[in-house]
Amino acid sequence: MVTAANNQIREQSQPDRALNPLLGATLAELTTWVQQQGQPAYRGRQLHEWIYQKGVRHFSEISVFPKQWRSALTDVEIGRSNLHHRSVAPDGTVKYLLQLADGQIIETVGIPTEKRLTVCVSTQVGCPMACSFCATGKEGFSRNVARHEIIDQVLSVQEDFQRRVSHIVFMGMGEPLLNLDNVLPAIQSLNQDVGIGQRNMTLSTVGIPGRILDLAQHQLQITLAVSLHASNQVLREQLIPSAHRYPLKDLLAECRAYVQATSRRVTFEYILLAGVNDLPEQAAELAQMLRGFQSHVNLIPYNPIREADYQRPASRRIQAFANVLKQQQIAVSVRFSRGLEADAACGQLRASKLRR
Ligand code: SAH
Q1: pLDDT, tens digit, for every residue of 138-157?
Q2: Is 136 in the pocket of ligand 1 (CB under 6 A)?
């Protein structure tokens, strides 16, 4: 749903943003822009359609525009990335390395099923959080991904699959709550311009103090997924360095406030590492912690990365962990990541393909 509050996110975030690149601009902004160029207002709607629906890569390709105008505006960028590398896993998951205008490379994953095409979007080049089990953090942090670069990832997958993207997960490289200035307007644009429902979007965070509350204020309909990964503070600090500055009780209090403000259930993600956090006692402790919470737990069996020596638990241990939660009336699913063979699964994303 388009609300006034939603539109404000986009207009306030960069009030004097020059429209170059064009990707990320609203229909109103594009209409004003074409008028400033001495063109009739209806060209704004055409431009909007060619950028967001037809997925044009260069202004000069918009064949409904007068030739003279197209050739005059050679320095106007749409804001599309270049495909640097593409690999397909046996399960059909496609991993893309996309090269951005400054040469930086990010990973994007396209995950098809019969009914859905999901895009896993990166929000930072690298990641500063340095979680012990995740490949992205091992290469450090370079910069935030710009709003047009977030939208481009979705359009790039759509173009490659020749099929509409139905779902978006902000679960690629980076910590989205450290880049809300770009992530929020990108969500609005993906919703209003590309046409993907907010309820089909999930944002995953390890938790940054205060930011879940910030997000709650925007009253989005997206699903919030929180990377919990531990049933107590001591264990969480061992796995996630940033947990030192964010006690579990504060994180959970913010999650509760999020549920209150948005009436949306929160998803908790829990990576399963053999012998580390997969014991039945830990499942019981987790159940105790989440009792009465409007939530859903996604258990993610660990995907191996070469920089860490964790192991994925055996299937019966994964099942046993899930059963303890079920017995305690906690909604739970086991989520095996797709794309494992292409290094495209959760936690395996890194900018360099060379090190493989
Ligand atoms: N920074 C955000 C989003 C990126 S990671 C976050 O932390 O939530 C998306 C999910 O993949 C997170 O739950 C993350 O903890 C999980 N993940 C990271 N490394 C993994 C690995 N090696 N195996 C399985 N899941 C992993």
Answers
A1: 989 999 999 999 999 999 99
A2: no
